[in-house]
Amino acid sequence: MEALTQALLIFTLRVIGIAISTLATILTVQGRKLLAVLSGSLSTLIYVVAIAQVVTNLRNIPNLAAYVVGFGVGTWIGMIIEEWMALGYSEVRVISSSRGEPIAAALRRAGFGVTQIYGHGREGSVGIVDVFVPRKSVQTVIQTVEKVDPQAIITVSEARVVRRAYWRPPERKW
User: Fold this and answer.
1) At what angle do helices 33-55 and 61-85 cross, to 10 degrees?
2) 8 near 61, Cβ under 8 Å?
3) Is the pTM of this model over 0.85?
4) Integer-rounded Cα radius of gyration of the chain
5) Residues forming a β-bridge with 90
6) Average pLDDT of the chain?
């Protein structure tokens, strides 16, 4: 029973440590220095405790397996947490062959700041609509666009730094 408990502890530590490490990496890429340093330090502490349990007996297969599987599960959980948190900003670009103006109007009515550009595509004039939004708003933008033009081309890019953009006031849930 003690061997199972130790393997479970290693697995749990590894899942938590790697999930935090995954978030630390994303925070680093986004330039959130303090949070990246704090979460990276915490994940390293957890790593040291977990690896100490493994290296004391490298022939203990359950401990090794718990360590390895904990890495994979921790990465997966870290990605789910980051997706749920939706930190950062995105640029949503929409290209429409015939509905650029109505798309821009619908997005403005929904409270988003919109920049319209006109271009020329393979088959003629197109409307290009750019919207910078917090990542949590990306799905709302996409749904709004698809209601107006289901054939519109939509791309989403991460925006590392956004300065002086228009944000709609956050919705209050209380």
Assistant:
1) 160
2) no
3) no
4) 23
5) 133, 158
6) 88
